[in-house]
Amino acid sequence: MEDMVNLTIVKNNGPIFHSVDDVKPSEEGGPIARSGFNYQDEIAVSFLLEMLENPALIKIHCESHDDILLVYDPDGTGNRHVEFVQVKASEQDKLWSVADICLRKSGKAGTSIFEVSLARDKHTETSYFRLVTLRPVVSDLEILTFPLNAPGREPDGVRFKALEAELEKRFPEIKSPKGNVASYWIQNGYWDQRHSEDAVKTDNLVRVIKLSSKEGFPLLPELADTLLDELRSKAKKAGDAKWEPNRDRKIFTRAALREWWENRAQELIDGASAPAGGKLRRKMTEASLPEELVGLAIELRRDYSTATRTSRYMEPGQEEGLQRRVKSEVISLQARFVAGQIELDSAGFHALCLDRMDKLNDERPSGSEDQSAFLKGCMYDIADRCLLRFERTSR
């Protein structure tokens, strides 16, 4: 982690505003009850990819002062601005309206989407605001879907004035803690429509492949998927962490993410080109597994490789189906292990993986051939390609 910059600002001899990196969030409901936030985590991954691509995006918070918080230093001088991102995954099947963003929960002041968003403007950094939604907006809000400073967003324009008047009519006295009003929110706000979780996943996969190609180490889709799964685990883990005592776990820095990206991508590429069985031996040795287990694992992987190259002995499509099942189980187990949801050491996690292969085998149709060795060989082949590790890694 980079050192946190302790910034404060005094405005007209008034209150002191502190940096978003230093102030404990006023609410921490997200980390406590965020189960099922797959869409939000996928959006977080998209911003992590943006940080890999964009040197101006220097930090990302997950579930701190908002669902996602982006910290920018555009010119590298420390003149930072922040973007508070609200992600709305649970929506009615209709267009978003002004009434929707002004609707208060149980009529309580300060609880509407607009009020909550503007209230984030209370730190030393210049504030920007973003809403990420599945559904599009009505014409009254369309101005917010235009890029900032684009034609049609002029403060003296008809659309801007109409939305400003409507918000001021509904909240005539509203101001942020820094004294900014509705016009400031409109001018610095962006409505970001992302149509579905699957669409975001697809876009993220394409971005990983393009970024790796641009940087000189093109990744195959399978390896790109592995990196994305690990990024999802990182986003979930950061969202689950509490600000106290684990502030650093909630904040990604560009330097740390770039280092992880370059090292992990190279490791995957090396694994794909290494002699068969070589990476598997190293992975199991690093996990302090005994040599006899390592030897048996290499034999199972070799038998599996032979079976997949020789004439088929399974029903058409059965081999591919079993491979998909193993990959799915491995991804789920690895994600939970990396996220700290499986409290086992390396030997225990290895044993759990083998146990899951046995359970998959037990689920086969009655009277069908035992496939335990094939399933475990497939698992070890995945490990040999650096797509599974038995040792827990840090973020």
Order of helices and strands: EEHHEEEHHEHHEHHHEHHHHHH
Through-space gap between termini: 10 Å
Proportion of strand residues: 5-15%
Largest sheet: 6 strands, mixed
Q: Let me know the number of strands.
A: 8
The stretches of 5 or more residues where confidence is low (pLDDT under 50) are: 1-11, 30-36
SSE topology:
Elements: E1 8-10, E2 16-18, H1 29-32, H2 38-53, E3 57-62, E4 68-72, E5 81-88, H3 98-102, H4 113-119, E6 126-133, H5 158-170, H6 182-187, E7 189-193, H7 197-214, H8 221-240, H9 243-250, E8 251-253, H10 254-273, H11 278-286, H12 291-309, H13 318-338, H14 346-362, H15 372-384
Parallel strand pairs: 5-6, 6-7
Antiparallel strand pairs: 1-2, 3-4, 3-8, 4-5
Which characteristics define this entry?
alpha/beta; disordered N terminus; 15 helices; 395 residues; two-stranded antiparallel ribbon; 2 domains
Would you kindly provide a written description of the structure presented here, covering whatever features stand out?
The chain has a six-stranded mixed sheet. A two-stranded antiparallel sheet has the order 1-2. It is elongated and about 75 Å long. By secondary structure, the chain is α/β, with parallel strands linked by helices. It has two domains: 8-264, no CATH class; 275-384, no CATH class. The protein is 50% helix and 10% strand. The N and C termini lie close together (10 Å). It has helices at residues 29-32, 38-53, 98-102, 113-119, 158-170, 182-187, 197-214, 221-240, 243-250, 254-273, 278-286, 291-309, 318-338, 346-362, 372-384, and strands at 8-10, 16-18, 57-62, 68-72, 81-88, 126-133, 189-193, 251-253. Helix 8 (221-240) packs parallel to helix 13, helix 13 (318-338) packs antiparallel against helix 14 and helix 13 packs across helix 15. It contains 15 helices and eight strands.
